[in-house]
């Protein structure tokens, strides 16, 4: 017991000091208000996006590369539209840039009365075929959603997402200044599984973005959660995405034991957004490794493209 009494608990730094423990503010009428959110009120998607700049300021971050799935992808897109100087790149999985139509809104209201929130979330993430075939994954997420998440908050969050506004992004016209059009100005990688319920929404988003800095990645044999079903392919695609932005000097390929891809070769990923037509890659190899035309019969990689290729304003679409 003597040893326990020697422990100095006061040396642990408190999370909040006395000055910041209570956070109240006063209006001009000298009425004091609590900043806690009113019970039953959830922030809108726009309000959630506007919560990010103070976080970046607190963490002393000048800019970010964001990764978002579903509602998170929408929030990051809204954030990038409002604060383009703070976003260098985005990886958007299953993003939907459109607001819900009246028919969809009415259908969601009706389904909310007849279907529990867990089934609604599962139907949002997984297609009908995946719901019937991948039972283990579905059961895992069903238990996670039902047991690990506050159901009242989840219901409010779902209502906030269903009430989102259209991003109102538009593809800039040929020769038009990007500053005159409302679109994402950062490098953007759109990701969706080929059997995901979000395929149409992601393709619609791709049609609205600037083809010069946008890449659409459709992942074969993959449903609504490519980061879970195909994490290796998505990780490799993300590495090439960062390489195209100039952040990684080389990328280690899984099928090359000790060799790496020189940055001079892989910078064609960034160039391919401008110089490549739409391409389709087989599922046996990585989409981004095949976007760099290579000859690996003798274990080396050589580019068959000339450095100077005529610009084509088409978004590169790859499948893997």
From TrEMBL:
Polar residues bias locations: 292-306
Superkingdom: Eukaryota
Sections of the chain in a coiled coil: none
Region annotated Disordered, chain positions: 267-320
InterPro entries the UniProt entry points to: AB_hydrolase_fold (IPR029058), NDRG (IPR004142)
Compositional bias segments (type: Low complexity): 275-291
Biased composition regions of type Basic and acidic residues, renumbered to the chain: 309-320
Matches recorded under Pfam families: Ndr
PANTHER family: N-MYC DOWNSTREAM REGULATED
Record-stated family: Belongs to the NDRG family.
Identification of the protein by name: Protein NDRG3 isoform X5
Organism in which the protein naturally occurs: Neomonachus schauinslandi
């Amino acid at each position: 017991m003597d040893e326990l009494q020697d422990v100095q608990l006061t040396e642990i730094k408190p999370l909040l000091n006395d000055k910041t423990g209570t956070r109240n503010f006063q209006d001009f009428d000298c009425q004091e208000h609590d900043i806690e959110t009113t019970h039953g009120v959830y922030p809108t998607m726009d309000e959630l996006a506007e919560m990010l700049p103070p976080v970046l300021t607190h963490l002393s971050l000048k800019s970010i590369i964001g990764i978002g799935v579903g509602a998170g992808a929408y929030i990051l897109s809204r954030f990038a539209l409002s604060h383009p100087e703070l976003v260098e790149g985005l990886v958007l999985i299953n993003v939907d840039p459109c607001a819900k139509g009246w028919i969809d809104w009415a259908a969601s209201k009706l389904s909310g009365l007849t279907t529990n929130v867990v089934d609604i979330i599962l139907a949002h993430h997984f297609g009908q075929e995946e719901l019937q075939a991948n039972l283990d994954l579905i059961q895992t997420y069903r238990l996670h959603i039902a047991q690990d998440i506050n159901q009242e908050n989840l219901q409010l969050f779902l209502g906030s997402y269903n009430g989102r506004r259209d991003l109102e992004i538009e593809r800039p016209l040929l020769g038009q200044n990007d500053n005159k059009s409302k679109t994402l100005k950062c490098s953007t990688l759109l990701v969706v599984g080929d059997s995901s319920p979000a395929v149409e929404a992601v393709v619609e988003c791709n049609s609205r973005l600037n083809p010069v800095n946008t890449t659409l990645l459709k992942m074969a044999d993959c449903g609504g959660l490519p980061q879970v079903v195909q994490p290796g392919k998505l990780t490799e695609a993300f590495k090439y995405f960062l390489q195209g932005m100039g952040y990684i000097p080389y990328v280690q390929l899984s099928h090359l034991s000790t060799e790496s891809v020189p940055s001079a070769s892989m910078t064609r990923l960034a160039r391919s957004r401008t110089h490549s037509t739409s391409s389709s890659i087989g599922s046996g190899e990585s989409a981004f490794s095949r976007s760099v035309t290579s000859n690996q019969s003798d274990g080396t990689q050589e580019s068959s493209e000339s450095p100077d290729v005529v610009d084509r304003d088409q978004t590169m679409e790859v499948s893997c």
